[in-house]
Design goal:
single chain, 971 residues, alpha+beta, Cytochrome Bc1 Complex, Chain A, domain 1, 4 domains, 33 helices
Length: 971
């Protein structure tokens, strides 16, 4: 039973502001039932045999050819229709000779089909306003293949065309030798790009945990041998076996009458006919214990894998056969009890980790894996050399949970947390996007379950509370850790840490139950917390001139933007910006930036430590996200109207009443040191570690600190850096969403209005200096330790920054989209890379410089020079020749739809107005956002290219496999 909330139209006024007309509603008259539908609302196929209350928003049907469909109206965002075509076949449906075919077909269906000439699919969907990759995509898993399209600004004509194109792709693909020749290198490149240490661990885990089952070696990407042996005939044989109407479901949620959506499904899919009898799904096998295993603790396969660049990580799984269930209320009540049992153990494990000891983190999680196994996973990250102690300590906590029932107080705490999780969808059901609702139904089909409306899910949960007794939770805990076989994988950084046999014996060894984390802690109340200060009234409350957004100013310098919006029920977004961000930290203290992102929130506030912060938010929807930006620090959260006042207290108290608990800092140090080596395992990891550092002129504040730099930090240094930062202004608060203005202002008076006056953030030239890389044709060469056929290439052109250039920054987005389309076409066809090539623009609004246009791709090492040459050629052509009007339209129409959809949410305006209380000009720039992103000319694009993309303006960087960087350079 998956909750699938009801949607409605969103904030029309926002679209008007963005100068985009509200898309016309399609005809609201119910279409006559088509002869093709043989089952519908009176017999919804999803709910047959289940007592789960059916969600009345979904309209179900089944065509005579066996194709099933479900459609519903959803107005979030306005005008959009989300279409999902699910094929009940993934990599587990392949034979040994067909490994990778399900995924290969996903590519080939986009290549050419009945209504799409070869290579024209991306442009066709772009003309309809859909952005490739985000709005148009597909995914292949072990058990299904799903084609996805989110069609913006849906009209009768565009919907008809979209269903036509999608039906041709799925029901009548070309699958020619030419198609195979074009797509095979792309799939092989995708295989290459997914390689490396993480992939080796994933492969090893599959082989160990699912030994003896097809899942052990059925990754969707396939193998080089099976893919290179593919022929049009063999691929078509797989297609014919599984791509048939009685194995497909079409799911649609959008801003259209359901009868209209049904009519499109029937029009374009009813004539699809299947040949022959439908094949039976293959057997996925069952977990089996080894002969002679102890029935009380049947430990099976174990493996120790050496990966020097990955942190030590141990996972074991208690495996049971997967069984098809009837998704009814009783089954879901059992799942809820399972969830309570897991939550109680996880909270105990987290408490033990926070206190310091043998493991950095640990967790338990039950999952039904690929309809192949019902598994309870236990994950452990050891801290230090003694992995056996870490495993023993984690198993001790679990053993205690298996020995004695939890207290009712523990259960009640987790019940309160779960109830909030079920209440929020009820409160926010009008604002859930249609894309999410459609995806939820697809996932329900994949796991062979149903969906239910949020209010029904909440009601079932609340009526089930009497079942959540200590004895019931104990019984379900024991079931979770009882299975056919237990298997394990231990990833270590050096040989001789452990052997397969030692791991097996450690899992079989009896452990003593550890009750030390069974603490009955009293609830924490906001009423007992110290006041921030004396409440103060705002000195001014004035309209901003933008919609109904108002600005409050307090005598202490705090400024607040308020926007109550009734169209977003149940959701309130809160942001607090303060201080000077990266630019206010002394470069010699750079390591503390990373540690602050890990530990600043956890170090506590007022009288609350990290555990107290957890307890005080029990049964509440509160958040505490922390982010470091160029020129500000930001605390953010999504909360509810009833929790807003306390959420504001937490943020204000963090600034005014910080605590400096040591354990979160020490845990952050350990985590940062462990993680560092993982960056070197792949080209993308190296870019994540170092690209921003080089883009910002090798400024230490934008680098990733080394383990040595992390080790040199101290609790005293952490407090010195962050205590000063927390006292620095200016402070800007944004509250957008569903709240009562009078109540919010009263809460602000007691919190942010009561803060002491803030010191200005440092503004010395040394701290604020903005460096950019010097132009060079010689790449900076970095090295990774991953697979030898992996590399990455980056070419970047510095641009600018600041509010004065905001229109230009938006026009640069058009230019980079043009560049991306050309680069993707050129590099994919020329070098056979996958979808990795892309170009993006950054423009720091808070700084006067520091922006860039950056093109990058993952590819094989020998192709790096070709990538640089190709990117240079495209840049020079954009300078020499304006794009055609048609090429420009392929970019501006999707951008128009992206902006229009984004502007249907308050979060869009929140991001656009960050810093507006200090820089009011940002308010005016919101009014031009749509035209800035979509109205331009070929000549304007050419001029922008000439300004920034000159050959002498760029610098470049390459990430090469260790040992090959000099060979490539020599060539």
């Amino acid at each position: 039973m998956t909750s699938s909330p009801r949607a409605a139209r969103s904030l029309a006024c926002l679209l008007l502001l963005a100068q985009a007309p509200i898309p016309p509603l399609l005809a609201q008259e119910a279409a006559p039932a088509a002869d093709a539908a043989v089952a519908g609302a009176q017999d919804p196929w999803l709910y047959r045999g289940s007592d789960i209350p059916r969600d009345p928003e979904w309209h179900f049907g089944e065509l005579k050819n066996g194709l099933k469909y479900a459609v519903r109206k959803n107005g979030v965002p306005p005008g959009q229709v989300s279409i999902r075509i699910r094929v009940d076949a993934g990599s587990l449906y392949e034979t040994d000779a067909e490994r990778g075919y399900a995924h290969l077909l996903e590519h080939m269906l986009f290549r050419q089909s009945k209504y799409l000439a070869e290579g024209t699919a991306i442009a066709a969907f772009q003309r309809l306003g859909a952005t490739f990759g985000s709005d148009t995509n597909a995914v292949t898993s072990t058990t299904q293949t799903v084609f996805k399209l989110d069609l913006p600004n849906a009209t009768p004509a565009s919907l008809d065309e979209t269903f036509k194109l999608l039906s041709g792709m799925v029901a009548a693909p070309t699958l020619s030798a030419s198609n195979l020749k074009q797509d095979l290198p792309i799939v092989l490149a995708e295989m290459r790009e997914r390689g490396g240490a993480s992939k080796r661990v994933q492969d090893a885990m599959q082989k160990v945990l699912y030994a003896g089952q097809p899942l052990a070696n059925r990754e969707p990407i396939g193998t080089v041998e099976s893919l290179t042996a593919a022929t049009p005939a063999s691929v078509r044989a797989f297609y014919s076996r599984w791509y048939r109407p009685d194995n497909v479901a079409v799911i649609v949620a959008g801003d259209v009458d359901p009868a209209m959506l049904e009519s499109y499904v029937q029009k374009w899919f009813a004539d699809w006919t299947a040949k022959g009898k439908k094949a039976n799904a293959p057997s996925f096998g069952e977990p089996q214990a080894p002969a002679g295993a102890d029935p009380a603790n049947p430990v099976g396969e174990t493996r120790v894998l050496v990966e020097p660049d990955l942190p030590p990580s141990l996972m074991y799984a208690v495996l049971r056969p997967w069984r098809q269930v009837t998704d009814n209320i009783a089954y879901n009540q059992g799942l809820m009890t399972d969830a309570l049992a897991q939550a109680i153990i996880n909270r105990r494990l987290e408490s033990k980790a926070r206190a310091g000891g043998s493991f950095l983190s640990a967790s338990v999680n039950q999952d039904d894996v690929s309809r192949s196994a019902d598994a309870t996973f236990v994950s452990v990250t050891p801290l230090g050399e003694d992995w056996e102690a870490a495993l023993r300590d984690v198993r001790g906590v679990i053993a205690d949970a298996l020995t004695r029932a939890p207290t009712q107080a523990e259960i009640d705490r987790e019940v309160a947390e779960m109830e909030v999780a079920f209440q929020v969808p009820v409160e926010q059901q009008r604002i859930l996007p249609g894309s999410k609702i459609a995806d939820d139904l697809v996932n329900a089909l994949d796991i062979r379950e149903t969906v239910a409306a949020p209010n029904d899910v909440l009601r079932i949960f609340q009526e089930s509370k009497p079942l959540f007794t200590p004895d019931a939770v104990l019984r379900h805990t024991r079931q979770l850790f009882t299975g056919t076989v237990t298997r394990a994988l231990f990833t270590v950084q050096k040989p001789d840490v452990a052997t397969d046999r030692e791991l097996q014996l450690a899992l079989a060894e009896p452990v003593k139950a550890d009750a030390s984390v069974r603490r009955a802690l009293a609830p924490v109340s906001f009423d007992t917390l110290p006041a921030i200060g004396a409440p103060q009234k705002a000195t001014s409350d004035a309209p901003t001139g933008l919609l109904e957004i108002e600005q409050l100013t307090f005598a202490n310098g705090v400024k607040v933007l308020l926007w109550p919006v009734a169209e977003e029920p149940g959701r309130v977004m809160v942001k607090t910006r303060f201080g000077g961000g990266y630019r206010s930290i002394d470069p010699k203290d750079a390591a503390y930036i990373t540690l602050g992102q890990y530990a600043l929130v956890g170090s506590g506030l007022a009288t609350l430590g990290q555990d107290d912060l957890d307890r005080i938010s029990t049964g509440r929807k509160m958040g505490f996200n922390f982010e470091v930006q160029d020129a500000a620090f930001e605390l953010s959260a999504e909360t509810r109207p009833q929790d807003l006042a306390d959420q504001l207290y937490l943020f204000a108290a963090k600034l005014d009443l910080p605590r400096w608990d040591v354990n979160p800092f020490l845990r952050a140090k350990a985590a940062a040191k462990i993680q560092y080596a993982t960056f070197a395992t792949s080209p993308q990891g190296v870019l994540n570690r170092d690209l921003q550092y080089y883009q910002r002129g090798q400024d230490a504040r934008f680098g990733t600190p080394t383990p040595e730099q992390i080790e040199a930090t101290t609790p005293e240094g952490f407090k010195r850096v962050w205590s000063k930062t927390l006292t620095q202004g200016p402070v800007e608060v944004q509250i957008f969403g569903d709240f009562d203005k009078t109540a919010a202002i009263a809460a602000l008076e007691k919190t942010f209005g009561a803060l002491k006056a803030r010191a200005p953030a440092p503004s010395s030239a040394a701290l604020a200096k903005i460096e950019v890389p010097r132009p060079s044709d010689k790449p900076i060469t970095l090295v990774h330790h991953g697979d030898p056929d992996q590399a990455a290439a980056v070419i970047s052109w510095p641009t600018g920054g600041g509010t004065m250039g905001i229109r230009e920054s938006r026009q640069l987005e058009i230019l980079t989209q043009l560049f991306t389309n050309r680069l993707m076409n050129a590099v994919r066809e020329k070098l056979g890379v996958s979808y990795a090539p892309y170009v993006y623009s950054t423009w720091p609004v808070d700084l006067s410089a520091g922006g860039s246009i950056t093109a990058m791709a993952q590819l094989d090492p020998k192709s790096v020079p070709v990538f640089f040459q190709t990117a240079d050629e495209i840049a020079q052509d954009l300078i020499a020749n304006p794009p055609s009007a048609d090429e420009l339209a392929l970019v501006t129409e999707p951008l128009r739809q992206q902006v229009t959809r984004a502007a249907s949410s308050t979060s869009f305006f929140m991001s656009q107005l960050e810093g507006a209380t200090s820089d009011p000009s940002r308010i005016g720039t919101v009014r031009t956002v749509l035209s800035d992103y979509t109205v331009t000319t070929p000549q304007a694009m050419q001029a922008l290219a000439a300004r920034y993309l000159g050959r002498d303006n760029s610098w470049r960087l390459e990430v090469m496999p260790e040992g090959k960087e000099s060979q490539i350079a020599a060539k």
